């Protein structure tokens, strides 16, 4: 049984429910630890087409709401953790450090949503005019950037390590079979291992038409061979998605030999069994 979910979103960016509503859903689950991990504010000049909220305004209110919930949450409910999904923007490391130092986070997830300033989770970034060789090159760049994210030391967890497949699943599967692709992925995962950064295993992909966790089997095999530490997340954007498919996700992780997952409290890492 998975006891902790570290990846959950709210109305602050592009979720559909409040901090309080998300926690109410978690109270009805088997969780012992519940982490809220809203997207980080973006620096001037950046805008994600998927976000409906202005995070420079909504993020401080999100933090206040989570900190208040930590104080008021009932003792019989899951313990509340303040997290953030840090949007990795390599040309803006000073901005990222500023955001990290401004709030008392329990943990920080690193989310790779931009490659060469392209929002890879937006269907508009994968139009028909983007030829297959260009798509393959973007997949390669994604894992080169992921290695830098993992090596940065700024985050506790790397989120959904094949999120880039969300809008182009079949092309990504074809790229995985290309010479050198798995080596690039192994390089990114090795950077996670060497920096003691956990890899997220997420049920969000099980809610997509391709019905496959993040990451898929090929990457799970590499992670198991490298002895990576994992973390669990639902990446819920609505209360109805809380701990979705977690039983299936636990079986999936165990099938690759994983027995423990990691959380962090005040940036101190803790291992849990599942």
What is this entry, summarized?
This protein has one domain: TIM Barrel (Alpha-Beta Barrel). Helix content is 36%, strand content 18%.
What labels describe this entry?
seven-stranded parallel sheet, 274 residues, single chain, two-stranded antiparallel ribbon, alpha/beta, 11 strands, TIM Barrel
Note the topology.
Blueprint: E1 4-5, H1 19-27, E2 33-39, H2 55-72, E3 79-87, H3 93-102, E4 107-111, E5 114-115, E6 118-119, H4 132-151, E7 157-158, H5 169-176, H6 181-194, E8 198-202, H7 217-226, E9 230-233, H8 246-254, E10 260-265, E11 268-273
Parallel strand pairs: 1-2, 2-3, 3-4, 4-7, 7-8, 8-9
Antiparallel strand pairs: 5-6, 10-11
Helix pairs in contact: 4-6, 6-7
Commentary on this structure:
- The protein is an alpha/beta fold.
- The protein has one domain: TIM Barrel (Alpha-Beta Barrel), CATH 3.20.20.140.
- 36% of the residues lie in helices and 18% in strands.
- The protein has eight helices and eleven strands.
- It has helices spanning 19-27, 55-72, 93-102, 132-151, 169-176, 181-194, 217-226, 246-254, and strands at residues 4-5, 33-39, 79-87, 107-111, 114-115, 118-119, 157-158, 198-202, 230-233, 260-265, 268-273.
- The strands form three sheets. It has a seven-stranded parallel β-sheet with strand order 1-2-3-4-7-8-9. Strands 5-6 form a two-stranded antiparallel sheet. The protein has a two-stranded antiparallel sheet with strand order 10-11.
- A hairpin with a 2-residue loop joins strand 5 (114-115) and strand 6.
- Helix 4 packs parallel to helix 6 and helix 6 (181-194) packs across helix 7 (217-226).
- The mean pLDDT is 95.
């Amino acid at each position: 049984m998975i006891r902790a979910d570290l990846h959950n979103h709210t109305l602050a960016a592009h979720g559909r429910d409040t901090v309080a509503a998300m926690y109410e859903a978690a109270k009805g689950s088997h969780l012992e630890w519940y982490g809220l991990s809203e997207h980080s504010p973006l620096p001037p000049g950046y805008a994600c087409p998927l976000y409906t909220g202005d995070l420079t305004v909504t993020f401080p209110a999100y933090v206040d709401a989570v900190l208040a919930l930590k104080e008021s949450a009932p003792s019989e409910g899951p313990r509340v953790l303040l997290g953030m999904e840090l949007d990795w923007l390599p040309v803006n490391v000073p901005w990222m450090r500023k955001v990290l130092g401004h709030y008392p986070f329990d943990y920080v997830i690193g989310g790779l949503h931009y490659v060469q300033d392209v929002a890879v989770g937006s269907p508009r970034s994968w139009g028909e005019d983007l030829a297959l060789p260009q798509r393959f090159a973007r997949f390669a760049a994604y894992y080169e950037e992921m290695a830098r994210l993992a090596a940065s030391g700024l985050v506790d967890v790397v989120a959904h390590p094949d999120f880039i497949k969300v809008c182009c699943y079949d092309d990504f599967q074809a790229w995985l079979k290309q010479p050198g692709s798995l080596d690039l992925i192994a390089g990114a995962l090795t950077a996670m291992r060497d920096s003691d950064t956990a890899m997220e295993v997420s049920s969000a992909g099980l809610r997509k038409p391709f019905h496959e966790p993040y990451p898929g089997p090929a990457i799970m095999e590499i992670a198991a061979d490298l002895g990576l530490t994992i973390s669990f997340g639902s990446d819920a954007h609505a209360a109805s998605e809380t701990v979705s498919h977690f039983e299936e996700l636990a079986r999936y992780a165990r099938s690759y030999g994983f027995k423990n997952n990691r959380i962090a409290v005040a940036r101190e890492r803790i291992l849990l069994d599942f």
